[in-house]
Amino acid sequence: MTDTSIRRDTLTYGDYLRVPELLSLQTRLSTPPVHGEMLFMVVQQAQELWFKQILHELRLVIDLLEADELPEATHVLDRVDRILRMLGDGVEILEALPPMDFQEFRWLLRTASGFESEQFRELELASGLSDPQYLAMADRIVDIPAVRARWPVTLHDAFRDCIAPLDPDPIAALVQIYAHPSRHPNLYRLCETLSDYELRFREWRFHHAQLVIRVIGDRAPGTAGSSGGAYLDRTLQYRVFPELWEARNKLVAEVTQH
Ligand code: HEM
Fold it and tell me: Quick check: helix, strand or coil at residue 50?
């Protein structure tokens, strides 16, 4: 066997993962390069890769829910929850960026902002976020009808279809599930994993909002033109699965009345 034939039969780590291309993507804008800009780019690029993975997993979760394969769907959703937890920690790494280092290159970003992250908006829409204020804002960033055409059934829709056989009123269905988890073990596990999903997503928002006030304070406007910290605080109110929380409110109210 010649050296050339060995090379032809062998796949290297770098070729498979396309490491050279990946490592060529951190093109900093600052000249001379500001040290912290590398961290800023790497953290955000890594987050975008993970957003891609979450979207990939959500497609499978929805398909499995539609096929009534609840344990399998819950298993995949649990994987998503783990990714989200790690992403919240990932954002926190940037808290180590000193405010003045950021100011050295922030002006180079001009109007660029994570606000424009199309994958993040797709994640919110594929999950089923339908808050009117949110939709009015997202409409300026993504083509909502086109995204909805890619997700004709959102995670929220698929979840509602799963609990509908118990009761057409989703809150009443959830009250049954939470009052008697052992009678509906698969639905109960699904609801708990979806509750984690909503909370992990909010945690990401919270970690990001904390990062922002740590690096630029709570009064500086964002590069996309929002009020910055105040805007991000408002996004913490979004709920994709309001029924999950309303059912808990109802159950607790019933218990405390007796
Ligand atoms: C020094 C670090 C960061 C600062 C100062 C910062 C600042 C901001 C600000 C002020 C906003 C509000 C929109 C605007 O007017 O610009 C925003 C939105 C956003 N940022 Fe960041 N950000 C940072 C890091 C990150 C990272 C690591 C990510 C991860 C991808 C990210 C993703 C986003 C997303 C997705 C939004 C939209 C949030 C929403 O509208 O709910 N940002 N950012």
Answer: helix
Model confidence pLDDT, tens digit, residues 196-209:
999 999 999 999 99
Counting residues of the chain whose pLDDT is more than 90, the rounded percentage is 94
**Mean pLDDT score across all residues of the chain:** 95
For range 119-125, the mean pLDDT? 98
Does a structural domain hold residue 19? no
Q: How many domains does the chain have?
A: 1
Does residue 12 lie in a domain region?
no
79: containing domain: 30-257
**Distance (Å, whole) CA 239 – CA 52:** 22
Phi, psi (deg, nearest 5) at residue 130:
-135, 20
Q: Is the CB of 44 under 6 A from ligand 1?
A: yes
Ligand 1 mutation pick, 208, 216, 231, 236, max ligand atoms within 8 A of CB: 208
Asked if residues 197 and 77 have their Cβ atoms less than 8 Å apart, the reply is yes
The Cα 226–Cα 222 span in angstroms is 5
